[in-house]
Structure formats: C-alpha cells, structure tokens
Request: fold
Amino acid sequence: MDRKFVITIARGYGSGGRTIGKMLSESLGIPFYDRELLRLASDDSGINEQLFAKADEKLKKSLLFRIAKKVYKGELIPPDSDEFVSNDNLFNYQAKIIKELAETESCVIVGRCADFILKDCPNVIKVFVHAPLEDCIKTLVDMTGKSEKEVEKEIILIDKHRAEYYKYYTGRDWDNAKNYDLCFDSSQLGFEKCVEIVKSYMDIRFRLG
Reply:
C-alpha cells in the first residue's frame, strides 16, 4: 500500500487494545506511538516531559475537568503566555505531534484522542476495543498478580478517567460507536482476529477508495 495511513486505537482498560495496536504495528511494519508522544511533544515545545506526564494526573483530580469542556480546535498557546505550560496547552502540543505524524508517515497511535484530532484526515482508521468487565479483570489479574477486587477498582477508575478526558477535549462520548470505524469485543474475537479484521477493512476501504 503506497498511501500513508494512521490507525488510532481507543480502548477499555484490560481489553488488550494496546496489545492489538502493537501487533498491528509489527504486522504492517509501521511505527507504534503511545507514551512516546509525550517525549516528542516535549522535544517540540521545549516543555519538560514530566509536565506532560503529570498533566494527566492533575486532570484526573480536577473537579473542573469533570464538568467543563475545552474542545480541541488546533490552536497553540504562545511561550510568553502564563498558560504556556497549562494542561490544555500540553494537550495542544500532543495534538500537533499527532497531526505531524499523520502527515509524514503511516503509524499506529494509541489513545490521546487521536481519532478526534485526525477526524478530518481521509486515511485514518479509527478503532475502539472493549471487553466485558469480567474478562478485563481476568486479563489484568493474570498480568499483574493483583487481586480481582483491586483490579476491578482500577478498571472502573481508569475507564472513567479516559471517558472524562475524551469528553473534555472532544465534546463526545468516548464509547460511542459513531466515533469509530470499527468496534471490537476482544473477548469474542481474540487479538489475532482483531488484527486480521483491521487489515481486511483497510484492504477493502483503500482498494475501493
């Protein structure tokens, strides 16, 4: 396939979405971006990478974050502004990097509202991966060795934060199928089948496009 494309993956915690993204990256021979975006945004902006990492934590705890919206419109706040290192501008720089990557290479991007940021790009495949709570619990218990109760609490909290983060910056509901091209229940399909379906979808869509 000659044309550049981007696969964005939003996922429920414990559903295996990140693993599916890595498998797609390896199968297609294209880069995979997750937390690497923080380093790239830091390099681009000159803002310390640790501030990008801390921004997510601040947003989790902010009451304003839960009731307000700051829908992303593509603007950057200039360095001479008091808001230059604000959480919103840190998001803006991540979005800038995501757009630049989409323009220059094919890649897989996990999370970071990438589906919304790239909503006007033609060659983007937007994927949402989920699984029933009991399956996510089992996956994470096996991975981490934590208790079922501990893992269940983590899943509920992390998915709640992901939904709030997405709503804040996009104005949309994170788990709404209308936002995505493909939605998978990974517990029904397994990771390999999810990868196969994405590749088949790309083949059909881009061959016909």
Summary: Residues 6-202 form a domain with the Rossmann fold fold (CATH 3.40.50.300).
